[in-house]
């Protein structure tokens, strides 16, 4: 990466997989990790309040659902925000990633907002239509723990890429 920048070339120009003689081993190594205490409570509470369905698409495959933080864990108060179900949305894996990256958000009226950056991204016409179909669509609201407006405003002001 540094060499590419220094030589004003793209990484793809410098690395040709045809030149790779030996691939590195794909091994495991042991390491210490931090785990989020309270994350299980947050996940179960958020998913259950949304009836185990994505609030955007209605998808009900638990293996594809994520209890997504509206205001990210790392900047949330550990006592009042991190495990607060009002700071959660039940999203499928694709929409969770787009939400975390700020490519989609929800308004304080609980409607999906698709970023102009995502709308302008390269994609096939079916995907473009599919994404557009959710823009300005109201989310499926939870039975309990309505998303907190203060969390939504944080996401819109700090995370969302207009």
Q: Please list the strands of the largest sheet in the order they lie side by side.
A: 1-2
* Poorly predicted parts: none
**Overall domain count:** 1
Gyration radius (Cα, Å) is 20 Å
Average pLDDT for all residues: 90
Topology order in helix (H) and strand (E) letters: HHHEEHEEHHH
Distance between the termini: 29 Å
Shape: globular
| Count of extended strands | 4
The portion of residues assigned to helices is 25-40%
Amount of beta strand: 5-15%
Question: Structural class from helices and strands?
Answer: alpha+beta
- Enumerate how many helices there are, as a single number: 7
Largest sheet: 2 strands, antiparallel
Structural key phrases:
single chain; 162 residues; alpha+beta; two-stranded antiparallel sheet; two-stranded antiparallel ribbon; 7 helices
Q: TL;DR of this structure?
A:
This protein is of the alpha+beta class.
Model description:
By secondary structure, this protein is α+β, with helices and mostly antiparallel strands. The chain has one domain. The protein is 31% helix and 10% strand. It contains seven helices and four strands, in the order αααββαββααα. The strands form two sheets. The protein has a two-stranded antiparallel ribbon with strand order 1-2. Strands 3-4 form a two-stranded antiparallel sheet. The mean pLDDT is 90.
